[in-house]
Design brief:
Layout (H helix, E strand, L loop, with lengths): L7 H23 L5 H7 L5 H4 L1 H24 L1 H20 L4 H28 L6 H27 L5 H4 L1 H15 L13 H19 L6 H24 L13 H31 L4 H8 L1 H9 L3 H8 L1 H22 L6 H4 L1 H19 L10 H29 L5 H39 L1
Helix pairs in contact: 1-6, 1-7, 1-9, 4-5, 4-6, 4-10, 4-19, 5-6, 5-9, 6-19, 7-13, 7-14, 7-15, 7-18, 10-11, 10-19, 12-13, 12-18, 12-19, 12-20, 14-18, 15-16, 16-18, 16-20, 19-20
């Protein structure tokens, strides 16, 4: 394994490069969300469901390719995979910006999704590989904070750029990519650990098919008939089951079972999944309250929601120190309590007449603080993965986030569909679901404590 650089300044420069890539991939997941009306007008005559594939194809391919991309990175080297992913992301962004038709734009967005799958797991793996153990929590906190800034700033930045042209939401990536590539060539460590592996083509096909079908079914659940949704979802689940059997029998599978040998890693993956089910529900529920019930403009809603992610971005860099002092269980359980309070606030306080300062803003700030405690702590469980498989471990955790987000949207829409009373009544039921996910996230945190104690004992015995 590559040893952490002795120069502390260089470690932080590596983290800056990795965080820049994280910023780009998350920004492009959110910046398009506010551009739907402009894109629908630009490519008229077309439908909103067709335009939605500009976002959907990116999200689906990102989730489906994370695990194969993580394995590739561990095989050819995280630095190589990271730089190639950056270049591909820049080329795809330029193609999106210059796309003459909707079909061409969707094709380049698919290419962006492939590039993002290369970048996401390698960015966290590169950052962790150059930090000593006692600083890794802080590094993950900074990495998560940058992602929170991208999530909060994406819709707002999109609204500003669309005033010039929708093409600028993609053009803006090009200089950012160029600067990150140059910094990466200069500062990223060379000679990172690689694993010589057989090509597990069947495993890659199975995991891609399973994730693509499951995510497509969840994303399209609002537009498809229930029979079609359940059929596609069922095939995806069957492929996932076949993938598990394949992994257990293959001598060198696309996902090594030893990744899950440590309970801490398993707990992290499960916790990320259930937390992001609630995360997606909270985000969509808040958006629907502001736009559908209170009739905010799309840009106004984006600005109104921004304090939540911004609070997370301010608090996240401190999560590493807090985690080192109070431990995994305290961080996750405390964050889950705050998350439940964030969902309970509008459940109790929100009314038909808008009062943003008292009915929504406190909820968003609580959510931001909860995210700062939960997300970095759960993502830091990647440190339990073998050193040479950090990219694969990061890919599994990131895939859990993507699946949780897609499932959360599908669950929220299903809940709203079953609620015959329009408006706030349906949203209150949705916020109750978010509270349930907070309870499950806390349960994951409680499951992690015993493992932490055993690890401490084992380390003490070893030393």
């Amino acid at each position: 394994m590559t040893q952490p650089p002795t120069d502390g300044r260089r470690r932080w420069l590596v983290l800056a490069v990795a965080s820049a890539a994280n910023f780009l991939t998350i920004l492009d997941l959110w910046v398009v969300s506010i551009a739907y009306p402009a894109l629908e007008r630009a490519f008229a005559p077309t439908t909103l469901s067709s335009v939605s594939w500009i976002l959907n194809v990116y999200a689906i391919l990102l989730a489906a390719l994370l695990i194969p991309a993580g394995r590739l990175a561990d095989g050819i080297g995280r630095r190589t995979s990271f730089l190639e992913g950056l270049v591909l992301f820049g080329v795809a962004s330029l193609g999106c910006a210059m796309a003459p038709t909707l079909a061409v734009l969707i094709a380049f967005r698919a290419l962006q999704g492939v590039a993002a799958a290369l970048l996401m797991p390698t960015s966290l793996g590169l950052a962790l590989s150059v930090f000593p153990a006692h600083e890794r929590g802080t590094a993950v906190g900074v990495w998560a904070a940058v992602g929170a800034v991208a999530a909060s700033g994406g819709p707002v930045l999109g609204g500003v750029l669309i005033a010039l042209s929708w093409r600028w939401i993609f053009f803006i990536n090009v200089p950012l990519v160029l600067a990150t590539v140059v910094a990466g060539v200069v500062y990223l460590p060379t000679g990172d650990a690689r694993i010589r592996r057989r090509v597990d083509g069947l495993g890659a096909v199975l995991v891609f098919g399973a994730m693509a079908l499951v995510c497509t079914a969840l994303v399209e659940a609002t537009a498809w008939a229930p029979a079609r949704t359940w059929s596609v979802l069922g095939v995806g689940v069957l492929l996932a089951a076949a993938f598990v059997v394949h992994v257990l029998r293959h001598p060198d599978p696309v996902v090594a079972p030893r990744l899950f040998a440590a309970r801490g890693f398993r707990v992290g993956a499960a916790g990320i999944f259930v937390y992001y089910v609630g995360f997606a529900g909270m985000l969509l529920g808040s958006t629907l309250l502001l736009t559908d019930c209170w009739h905010f403009s799309v840009l106004g809603a984006a600005l109104a929601i921004a304090p939540g992610p911004l609070a997370a971005s301010v608090a996240s860099p401190f999560s590493g120190r807090l985690s080192a002092r109070f431990g995994f269980r305290t961080m996750v359980v405390a964050g889950s309590v705050l998350f439940a309070a964030a969902a309970a606030w509008p459940l109790v306080a929100a009314g038909a007449s808008p009062d943003y300062a008292t009915e929504v803003l406190p909820s968003l700030l609580l959510w931001g603080l909860a995210n700062a405690l939960i997300q970095p702590t759960l993502f830091a469980t990647v440190d339990a993965a073998p050193r040479a498989e950090l990219a694969s471990g990061s890919a599994v955790l990131t895939m859990a986030r993507q699946l949780g987000s897609a499932f959360g949207v599908a669950v929220l829409v299903a809940v709203l569909r079953t609620e015959h009373t329009a408006g706030l009544a349906g949203l209150r039921r949705a916020w109750a679901v978010v509270i349930a996910t907070a309870v499950l996230t806390a349960a994951a945190g409680l499951r992690g404590k015993a493992e932490n104690r055993r690890q401490v004992v084992a380390v003490g015995q070893a030393t």
